[in-house]
Specification:
Rossmann fold; 6-stranded mixed sheet; 7-stranded mixed sheet; Dihydrodipicolinate Reductase, domain 2; binds NADP nicotinamide-adenine-dinucleotide phosphate
């Protein structure tokens, strides 16, 4: 299973946008190394460097360039000693493929939404609900494989920002999202639809935010979400109003975020989950790939108070924190807890 002391992994859907983010992150990872990349039609049988239409504003990772893109095939994974699979498959086909992999003993870390609401599958965010990883034992691990999901991109940012505020009693959340084009994958939306336009509808997104945020935070507030696609490339901005049962002031909120230090020190987590930026106009989408590691920091700004409601804005990188980076962090947590890497 290990080569050069690293764990061999496969990225499924490696030619898509989330797949590219996976390849970028895993190409210089201290624990995992990519040995297999899959697509569906793009470049099957070609080298990744020749087939890929690289869209990330991050350097192309040369290391992965020589890997030949294959079709997803569990037999060839098994033959190559791969047990860890990162999935960036479209949700409508991911469900059956991921089930099948789990049944064959694979450890599946997925971005797809197909299994997020299964009661024995965690929506894991390692700096918020690390304990939910125990659900893999209800799937049969260690006797079988498992599926671990990460949240939808907008829910990821919202949950990270709300988690440190649970102590004030979250009763109601109103959130409006301004979501980047890359959230729809590549080739994604038609330029005729999105250029110079905002689209006040993203199929299924509002329901996902409402359901996932409750599952991740293990609380049951009213959540009212409105999701809008905007013509920016990367990063989802969210404007949020929260009604609390307590009466925190903006300074209390800021203090709670400043103490949002993850319990586990994982390579893909930032030292603090939430960074508050002062000044009007912050956070903006130009910050999407800032931070260490790039794209994992959730930024907030614009705190204000009206009665028992606190308002603020946040920025989450949909491809990294809300996508591949979240999944890699999940695999790191699994490795930390179950593989005794301490
Ligand atoms: N984009 C985001 O911001 C974001 C954030 C969080 C979660 N997600 C989720 O992550 C997943 C990937 O999203 P994405 O934006 O990266 O999509 P994408 O750019 O459209 O990429 C989809 C990938 O899946 C492959 N694929 C498509 N149909 C397939 C099939 N029938 N069999 C095997 N592989 C197939 C594609 O290969 P080809 O190139 O060969 O077609 C491509 O590699 C989705 O489930 C999405 O909901 C996306």
């Amino acid at each position: 299973m290990k080569n050069n002391n690293k764990i061999n992994v496969c990225v499924m859907g490696a030619t898509g946008l989330i797949g590219q983010a996976f390849v970028n992150i895993l190409s210089s990872h201290p624990v995992f190394q990519i040995v297999s990349l899959t697509g569906s039609k793009t470049g099957i049988g070609e080298k990744y460097r020749d087939a890929i239409n690289w869209k990330l504003p991050l350097a192309f990772p040369d290391k992965a360039g020589d890997i030949i893109i294959s079709k997803p095939d569990k037999k060839s994974l098994g033959n190559r000693g791969i047990q860890v699979v990162f999935s960036a498959l479209p949700s409508d086909i991911a469900g059956d493929i991921e089930d099948d992999l789990r049944n064959e003993g694979f450890f599946v870390f997925t971005n797809a939404g197909a299994h997020r609401y299964d009661t024995d599958v965690p929506i894991l965010v390692p700096d918020i609900n690390p304990g939910s990883i125990k659900l893999i034992e209800e799937q049969g691990f260690p006797k079988s494989g498992f599926i671990i999901t990460n949240p939808n991109c907008s829910s990821a940012g919202l949950s990270v920002a709300l988690a440190p505020l649970k102590r004030f009693g979250i009763e109601e959340v109103t959130v409006s999202t301004y979501q980047a084009i890359s959230g729809a994958g590549y080739p994604g939306l038609s330029a005729m639809d999105i250029s110079g336009n905002v689209i006040p509808h993203i199929e299924g997104e509002e329901e996902k935010i409402e359901k996932e945020t409750r599952k991740i935070l293990e609380i049951d507030p009213e959540i009212f979400a409105t999701c809008v696609r905007v013509p920016v490339l990367y990063g989802h901005l969210e404007t949020i109003w929260v009604e609390f049962s307590g009466s925190p002031c903006p300074e209390d909120i800021q203090k709670a975020w400043s103490k949002s230090v993850p319990e586990f020190n994982l390579p893909s987590l930032t030292s603090r989950s939430v960074e508050y930026l002062t000044g009007p106009g912050y956070p903006g989408n130009h910050l999407s790939f800032r931070g260490d590691p790039p794209g994992m920091q959730v930024y907030t700004g614009g705190l204000k108070k009206r009665g028992r409601r606190i308002g603020f804005n946040l920025l989450v990188n949909n491809l990294v924190r809300g996508g591949a980076g979240g999944s890699v962090a999940n695999a790191e947590l699994f490795h930390e807890i179950y593989r005794g890497s301490k």
